[in-house]
Each structure stands twice: as C-alpha cells, then as structure tokens.
Amino acid sequence: MAKLPAVLLAACTALLALTAPLLAGDPDMLQDFCIAEYKSLEGPLRVNGFPCKRPENVTANDFFSDALSLPGNTGNPVGSAVTAVNVDKLPGLNTLGMSMSRSDYAPWGVNPPHTHPRATEIIFVVEGFLTVGFVTTAGNLFTRTVCKGELFVFPHGLVHFQRNNGGTPAMVISAFNSQLPGIQSVAVSLSRVSPWMPTDVLARAFQIDAGMVEAVNSKSMPMY
C-alpha cells in the first residue's frame, strides 16, 4: 500500500506531460528565434510549421512588416477587408506563437461569422464602433457594442462576427496567440467547398428546400 501514492504520482506526472502540449497554443521555441525558411516548401519534406533559416542569413527585415499600415479594400459585398500578418507573411513570427491582423470596415460593413481554429483573438477598436459577438457550443450568443479604444476577446475556436454600426469607416487591430490562427468562414465553408457539399445535406440541416440551397450557392462570396 505504501507504494500506491508513488504510483499515482508517477501516473499523474506522465498524464500532465502528455497533455501539456495540448493545453498550449503553438509549441514553445527552443532557441532565440527561428526565421521561417519558405524555400523548404519546395522540397519533399513537410513539417508542422517552417524549418529555420540559417542564422548567418537572418536580417532585421525578417522581423519587420508594414502591412498593417495600409487600409484594406472594403469595396466587396460584405463591406470589410482583413489584412493578416502571420508566419506566412512575416517569417520572424515562426515559433513565436503570435500574429496580428487589421480589419477595415465600410459604413455598416460586416465581418461575417467565422472561426479561428488554432487561436484566441483579442480586438482593439482603433476607429468607429462595432457590434461584436460570439456563439458558445451551448448555443448562447454573447454580444455587445465595442467603441474606439475598447477591447473584446473571442475565445479559441468559437464562431464570432463583427459589424460596423456607424455611417463612417471603422478599423480594428486583432492579436492572436498563434503564428497561424487559420480562418474558416461559416458561409464559405458550407457553400464554397470542393467538391460541393450535397444539397440535400444542407437542405436538411437548415430545414429549407433544395432550390433555396442552390440559390444561396449561386451567390458570389468573398473567400477569406
């Protein structure tokens, strides 16, 4: 019986060691930096992320981007544009577990319901005021107005949206706890997949007729 506590302790330690990577965002880095080597994608070997550029080839520009300084083009059906700065655009983010984006909104523009499968998002309203919200797995909607200078958090992986409530343009800066948060638009993922999702599946899911499904699928939707 005296050995039981030691066995339990060992079992708990092993369990924590196995689950710790699952609780984190991106894997922790093991060196000062690991600049993404994009040329590695041309080879046969693929890894979770990017291999590191050789240190002697690293420059200050690998850590720099001015992408968020320019407004996006909101002249589209939803009236919004998202400019992402992730590891695909800024190699210095590789292994750092973070990224940012800029969202521009035309008057009454919308960032339609979507998810980030690999990250939590926090937004800071730079200009304007928006209605924002997210839906829990229990089907509860948490929504409110967020004004200039205020913050709002969208929990990891939950469906969320933003809408400009004003007659003037709005702008938001977002931060993520992943170098590559990913984005999946609810509308696009159901109606712009390849091959097409069966019409009868969508009709039954939304309790509408097949003709309405096909009418929705015929619309042009922005691919985020």
Summarize the structure.
With 224 residues, the chain is an alpha+beta fold. It has helices at 3-23, 186-191, 199-206, 210-217, and strands at 80-85, 99-105, 110-115, 121-127, 129-135, 141-147, 151-154, 159-164, 170-176, 184-185. The protein has a five-stranded antiparallel sheet with strand order 1-2-9-4-7, with no helix packed on it. A five-stranded antiparallel sheet has the order 6-5-8-3-10.
**Order of strands across the biggest sheet?**
1-2-9-4-7
Largest sheet properties:
5 strands, antiparallel
**Radius of gyration, Cα only, in angstroms?**
21 Å
Mean pLDDT: 85
Distance between the termini: 59 Å
Total count of helical runs of at least 4 residues = 4
Low-confidence spans: pLDDT under 50, at least 5 residues?
Answer: 12-16, 18-23
Query: How much helix is in the residues?
Result: 10-25%
State the secondary-structure class.
alpha+beta
Order of helices and strands: HEEEEEEEEEEHHH
Number of strands: 10
Shape: globular
Give your account of this protein's structure.
With 224 residues, the protein is α+β, with helices and mostly antiparallel strands. The chain is built from 4 helices and 10 strands; from the N terminus they run H-E-E-E-E-E-E-E-E-E-E-H-H-H. The strands form 2 sheets. A 5-stranded antiparallel beta sheet has the order 1-2-9-4-7, with no helix packed on it. A 5-stranded antiparallel beta sheet has the order 6-5-8-3-10. A hairpin with a 5-residue loop joins strand 5 (129-135) and strand 6. Helix 3 crosses helix 4 (210-217). The longest helix is centred in the N-terminal third of the chain and has 21 residues, at 3-23. The N and C termini lie far apart (59 Å).
